[in-house]
Design a protein that fits this description.
385 residues; alpha/beta; Rossmann fold; formyl-coa transferase, domain 3; 2 domains; 6-stranded parallel sheet
């Protein structure tokens, strides 16, 4: 069966990015079927040396660079820098994530690229955007997620004795910034197709975090909650948190009497539950009641298996979910049904279940057509540029 071409088939992207933010942007465009040529320094992109590793290869690089090509250019060398210009002359877009000092040193500022290649859609992703003090641009994902406020309150509802956590993973700001960068690139490529003209896209990773406004910030802006240095000031309220069960953890969120009545039914309406008012979550959600609930519920949920109990809870209208581990996800029934994980071959890893995307496109489905490339595997692209 012939694989249909991707939605961006015929589009060529040059990627000189060397961090997950830029590399994930290129990956998303490669998912859509664009030809993404990754320009790597001699010795390879820094992400090739970013753990964790398997059989000596970076799994981080392997994930962010599927469906791409690799050419090696030393951009400090005038001959190789000229080769990059030849690649850009036949490309549609350029993805970068270096700071302005690096861009100026390599003739790759917004003005320089626009002057040499006015047709190019040029996107740069940096921690604080263009024009920020140079020392700010050395920020890492953990700095960005804290500067954007997310690490302070997400995850919330954590016990006081535990330290603040980094939030939803190591590269959350990179993933989020890549989504915005990809959206801007797609819109700009559409404009380019109509006008023949490129443009410059300036992505600030911190502003992306701030733009993901949520109910906590909403409450403060509306005057319903005062900003505070206490982490608990950002909790949603109620007894919800994660609890240990027989084979892992579940997370429960409860704010209404319907939640409470459903949970009582799930538990068989034990005597300790009948001691709470039916509307306690709405009108009597005191610190003492929350502590009493958590103490009693912890003993009960510890005897349950996470998948059957969360399925039963959801059927009763209780907002309970299993806390999935990396090992759980490839076996998840719904993810398997949607084909979220695709089998692919990697020269060092063997057969791999690659996570793909959250959407399904009928005419141009996403396919993992090739693993992350070997360093310089496509150097011939420079010769034909």
């Amino acid at each position: 069966m012939t694989t249909p071409p991707g939605a961006l088939a015929g589009i060529t992207i040059i990627e000189i990015a060397e961090r997950p933010a830029g590399e994930n942007t290129g990956k998303l465009l490669a998912d859509f079927g664009a030809e993404v040529i990754k320009v790597e320094r001699p010795g390879g992109s820094p992400t090739r040396r970013m753990g964790p590793f398997r059989n000596g290869e970076s799994t981080v690089f392997a994930y962010f660079n599927t469906n791409k090509k690799s050419v090696v250019l030393d951009l400090e060398n005038p001959r190789d820098r000229a080769a990059l210009d030849r690649l850009l002359a036949r490309a549609d877009a350029l993805i970068d994530d270096h700071d302005e000092v690096w861009g100026a040193a390599h003739g790759l500022t917004a003005d320089a690229v626009a002057a040499a290649h006015p047709h190019i859609v040029h996107c740069i992703i940096t921690p604080f955007g263009q024009g920020a003090p140079a020392e700010w641009q050395k920020a890492r994902p953990i700095n960005v997620i804290n500067a954007g406020g997310w690490a302070y309150h997400s995850p919330s509802e954590m016990p006081d004795e535990k330290p603040p956590l980094k939030g939803a993973g190591r590269f959350l700001p990179d993933y989020e910034s890549a989504i915005d960068a990809t959206t801007c690139l797609l819109a700009s490529l559409h404009r380019q197709r109509k006008t023949g003209a490129g443009q410059f896209i300036d992505i600030s990773e911190v502003e992306v975090q701030l733009n993901r406004i949520d109910c906590v910030l909403d409450r403060m802006l509306a005057g319903e909650a005062e900003p505070s240095n206490e982490r608990t000031a950002y909790d949603m309220g109620g007894p919800g948190t994660s609890f240990a069960c027989k084979d892992g953890h579940i997370y429960i969120f409860m704010t209404t009497r319907n939640h409470w009545n459903g949970l009582r039914k799930l538990m068989g309406d034990p005597a300790w539950a009948r001691a709470f008012r039916e509307d306690w979550l709405e009108f009597d959600c005191t610190r003492d009641n929350v502590a009493a609930f958590r103490r009693q519920f912890s003993d009960w949920i510890a005897q349950q298996d996470k998948m059957p109990i969360t399925e039963a809870a959801q059927k009763l209208g209780v907002a309970m979910v299993p806390v999935s581990t990396a090992a759980d996800l490839p076996r998840h029934e719904q993810l398997a049904h949607r084909g979220f994980f695709q089998q692919g071959e990697h020269p060092a890893f063997g057969t791999v279940a690659y996570p793909t995307v959250s959407y399904r496109m009928s005419a141009s489905p996403v396919r993992i057509t090739g693993p992350a490339p070997a360093l310089g595997a496509d150097d011939s692209e420079v010769e034909r540029a």
